[in-house]
Task: structure prediction
Amino acid sequence: QVQLVESGGGSVQAGVSLRLSCAASGHTDSSYNMGWFRQAPGREREFVAATLWSGRYTYYAHYGDSVQGRFTISRDNAKTVALQMNNLKPEDTAVYYCAAGSRISTATVKEPNVYDYWGQGTQVTVSS
Result:
């Protein structure tokens, strides 16, 4: 079993930055791909960003359309993934979830159901 724990959420004003982190523990596998989703009240879970390994130490980053150019995902090591969120907007308000899995491909990276493990989520609130 794999446990994912997110940190770094909070309440901020529009235009500022936040950095989220996610740490994996348990029976982790260095080949796991990791990413972030978010869910606002009354809305479906939305893909934010993910990293897909392209080699032993390199990865491709994928982003949702609404965060492209503002958010940056980084894989610090096999067990940690971070999400740097710049120029936050009120519409970014949501619970942010870290996710991981071994069955993720470029074609499926934005689909929540291909991720095997999920964190409990961290709240991000952006006020105008």
In short: DSSP finds no helices and eleven strands in the chain. The longest strand covers residues 18-26. The mean pLDDT is 94.
